[in-house]
TrEMBL record:
Transmembrane segments: 6-30
A GO cellular component entry from the record: endoplasmic reticulum membrane
Protein name: Cytochrome P450 9e2
InterPro entries for the chain: Cyt_P450, Cyt_P450_CS, Cyt_P450_E_grp-I, Cyt_P450_sf, Insect_CytP450_Detox
Keywords: Endoplasmic reticulum, Heme, Iron, Membrane, Metal-binding, Microsome, Monooxygenase, Oxidoreductase, Transmembrane, Transmembrane helix
Localization in the cell: Endoplasmic reticulum membrane; Microsome membrane
Example of a GO MF term: oxidoreductase activity, acting on paired donors, with incorporation or reduction of molecular oxygen
Family stated for the protein in its record: Belongs to the cytochrome P450 family.
Organism of origin: Dufourea novaeangliae (Sweat bee)
Length: 511
C-alpha cells in the first residue's frame, strides 16, 4: 500500500472543514429564514446574516422611511417578527404591549442593546445608556440628582446666558441672518449649553466656530459618513473581527480631546478645591463617597459626561432646527406664539424667569408638536427572561421572546400613525392643548422614550428649547426663503437628517 501523502491528508481535512462549515452556514440560514414562519408570527423577511437594517447602513433608504415600511407591512398585527444580524427581533405596534414590556414587565426587558461593549471601548461602553442591570440602576440613581427641579432652576441661568449670547450675536451680525442653515446654528448653541451645564466651560460658538470643543464635538457626533456606517455594520456582523482590527467608531483625536478636557477639570477641582454645580461636580461627589460602586475612577466620570454631550448635541439641535423651520412655514403659529412671548415679557422686563417660562402654555404645545413630528426614530430593549406574547392577531400563534432577543419600539411610526394622530404630516400644536392631549392614546407619544429607561434629560431639553425660542422671537421674525424646501430625509444613518438642509431667514423686529 502506497503511503498517503501529506497533501492528500491536508486536502481531505480541508474538504471536511469546508463541508462542516457549509452545513453550519446552511443550517443557520435555514433557521433565520424559517424562524418566525415556524412560530406562526407575522414577519418581514430579513437578509440572512445581515438582518433588516443593512439597507439603512449602506445608505439605500432613510431609517424613518424604512421603519414606516416595516410598521405598515402588517397593519392589523400587534407586533411583527424580524431578524437583526441573526438575532430575533420583535417590532411592537400595539401601545398596550409597549406598556407591558417597557413598564409592567420591565424586569424582563431592562436593557438597551449595547452599541459598543465596555471591553471594546471603556468610555462609551460605561455610559448610562450602555450599562446593564444593576450597574445601570446605580448610575441612574447617581445622575438623577442632576435633573431635579432645584438643579433645573440653577441651570436655567446658565442656559439663559447661552441663549442670550446666541441671539445677541445674530442681532449684532445681520450678515448671519439672511440665509440661515438653522441646524448648523443650533448645533453651536447646543454645544455651548452642554459645555456650560456639564463641563463648566463658557463658550460662544456662533461667534467663535473654530473653538476646539465645537470642532471635536461635530466630528464625534457625525454618524452619517459612509465609512462610519461601514464600521457600524462590521461591528454588528462580527464584534470579534472588529476587536482584531483595532478600529474605533469615533475619532480618536476627538475622544482624546474630551478625555483630556474632563480629566484636567477633575484634576484642577481636586487640587484647588473649587466647586461648580455641574455634572462633573456631581460625579466627583459620587466618586468620593465610600462604597460607591457606580463611579470609581476617571473613566466613569468621562463616560457619563461624554454621553451627556453625545446624546444632547445632535438631538437637541435637530429639534430646534425643525421647530424654527415649522415656525417659518406656519406664520400664524409663529404669530400666536410671539403674542404669548410678548405677553409675558415687556420692554421693562426682558429677563425671562423659570416661573414665567412654565406659564407659557402655547410654547409648550409648539415644542411638544415638534417632538411628535420629528422624534427619535426608535427605542429598543433586550430580553433577559423568557416572556410570552399573545397572538399578534387572528390566525396567528402565541410566541415566546427569549433572552437576548431584541425589541424595537417604533416611535417615529407611532407618532405618524393617523389612527393616533390624524393628518400626521400637518404641524398642529393644538393636538397638545388642554382638551386634546387628554385624548392621546397612552404609549403612542414617547418623545423621550418610555419607562424607567426613558431619557433623564427630558426637562433640561424642554427648558433649553423654550428659552432660546423665547429669546429668538423677542428679537426676530422667522421667515422662509428660496432655499426653504419640503423636508426629505437623508438616506443612511439613524436620525432625521434633511437632504436639503433647513434654511430660513431672520428679520429684526422693530425696537
Amino acid at each position: 500500500m502506497e503511503p498517503v501523502s501529506t497533501w492528500t491528508v491536508f486536502g481531505i481535512l480541508l474538504i471536511t472543514l469546508i463541508t462542516v462549515c457549509s452545513v453550519k452556514v446552511v443550517a443557520l440560514l435555514y433557521q433565520e429564514l424559517t424562524y418566525w414562519k415556524k412560530r406562526g408570527v407575522p414577519y418581514m423577511q430579513a437578509t440572512p446574516l445581515l438582518g433588516m437594517s443593512w439597507q439603512v447602513l449602506l445608505g439605500r433608504v432613510s431609517f424613518p422611511d424604512y421603519l414606516s415600511f416595516l410598521y405598515y407591512s402588517h397593519p392589523d398585527a400587534a407586533y411583527i417578527g424580524g431578524m437583526e444580524n441573526t438575532v430575533p427581533l420583535v417590532i411592537f405596534r400595539d401601545p398596550k404591549l409597549i406598556r407591558e414590556v417597557s413598564v409592567k414587565y420591565f424586569d424582563h426587558f431592562p436593557n438597551h442593546r449595547s452599541f459598543i461593549p465596555e471591553e471594546m471601548d471603556p468610555i462609551f461602553g460605561r455610559n448610562v445608556f450602555s450599562l446593564l442591570d444593576n450597574r445601570w440602576r446605580d448610575m441612574r440613581n447617581t445622575l438623577s440628582p442632576f435633573f431635579t427641579s432645584k438643579k433645573m432652576r440653577f441651570m436655567f441661568g446658565l442656559v439663559s446666558k447661552c441663549s442670550h449670547d446666541f441671539v445677541d450675536c445674530l442681532h449684532q451680525h445681520p450678515e448671519l441672518c439672511s440665509m440661515v442653515d438653522i441646524k448648523d446654528y443650533f448645533r453651536k448653541y447646543t454645544n455651548d449649553v452642554i459645555a456650560s451645564v456639564a463641563f463648566g466651560i463658557n463658550l460662544n460658538s456662533l461667534n467663535d466656530p473654530e473653538n476646539e470643543f465645537y470642532k471635536a464635538g461635530t466630528g464625534i457626533t457625525d454618524l452619517t459618513s459612509f465609512i462610519r456606517m461601514i464600521k457600524i455594520m462590521l461591528f454588528r456582523l462580527s464584534p470579534r473581527l472588529w476587536r482584531m482590527t483595532g478600529l474605533s467608531l469615533f475619532s480618536k483625536s476627538g475622544m482624546k480631546f474630551f478625555y483630556n478636557v474632563i480629566s484636567e477639570s477633575v484634576r484642577a477641582r481636586d487640587e484647588q478645591g473649587f466647586v461648580r454645580l455641574d455634572m462633573i461636580h456631581l460625579l466627583i461627589q459620587a466618586r468620593d463617597r465610600e462604597k460607591h460602586q457606580s463611579v470609581t475612577n476617571i473613566d466613569d466620570i468621562v463616560a457619563q459626561t461624554f454621553i451627556f454631550f453625545f446624546a444632547g448635541f445632535d438631538t437637541m439641535s435637530t429639534l430646534l432646527a425643525y421647530l424654527t423651520y415649522e415656525l417659518a412655514l406656519n406664520q400664524d403659529i409663529q404669530e400666536k406664539l410671539r403674542e404669548e412671548v410678548d405677553h409675558y415679557m415687556t420692554k421693562e422686563n426682558e429677563e425671562i424667569t423659570y416661573e414665567t417660562l412654565s406659564k407659557m402654555e402655547y410654547l409648550e404645545m409648539v415644542v411638544s408638536e415638534t417632538h411628535r413630528k420629528y422624534p427619535v426614530v426608535i427605542t429598543d430593549r433586550v430580553c433577559t427572561e423568557k416572556f410570552e406574547l399573545p397572538p399578534a392577531g387572528p390566525g396567528y400563534n402565541k410566541t415566546t421572546v427569549n433572552p437576548n432577543d431584541s425589541i424595537w419600539i417604533p416611535i417615529y411610526a407611532l407618532h405618524h400613525d393617523p389612527k393616533y394622530f390624524p393628518n400626521p404630516d400637518k404641524f398642529d400644536p393644538e393636538r397638545f392643548n388642554e382638551e386634546n392631549k387628554r385624548n392621546i392614546v397612552p404609549y403612542t407619544y414617547m418623545p423621550f422614550g418610555v419607562g424607567p429607561r426613558m431619557c433623564m434629560g427630558n426637562r433640561l431639553s424642554m427648558m433649553e428649547a423654550k428659552i432660546v425660542t423665547v429669546h429668538l422671537l423677542r428679537k426676530f421674525f422667522v421667515l422662509p426663503n428660496e432655499k426653504t424646501k419640503p423636508v426629505r430625509f437623508k438616506k443612511g444613518g439613524f436620525a432625521l437628517i434633511p437632504i436639503d438642509g433647513l434654511f430660513c431667514s431672520f428679520k429684526k423686529r422693530d425696537p
